[in-house]
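Narrative summary of target 7.
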Amino acid sequence: MQLTSGYYISIGDPSLHPYQSPALACGYGDLYVCDINVVGSQAELAVIDQKAGFPQCLADTAYTSGQNFGPLTGHTLCVTTTDRIAVCYVTGDTTQDTSAPVNGLTMDVTVYSKH
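Modeled conformation, tokenized:
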């Protein structure tokens, strides 16, 4: 999946289709990318410094509000809502690259039910 600046995903949506953020409302959704160097979530977000799976994401409660991360390639973003966990392994990150035509993340995403 590719998630670019100005878009978000909802992990409750089975298609994981990226949606455009509402006008002037960047910072919306379960996982979003805004402008340069801004990644975040309205859900609980944990960042693991390696490839991780469901057990690690379930156990990691060091939540962050997101925003200014270093390069995320090779990291796992764990997005947790009340009933789901998305394990997002970042394979490419252009959120810090001012010369990139589009700022965003390329990820392998798997969504698990907590029930």
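The two ends are 25 Å apart (CA to CA).
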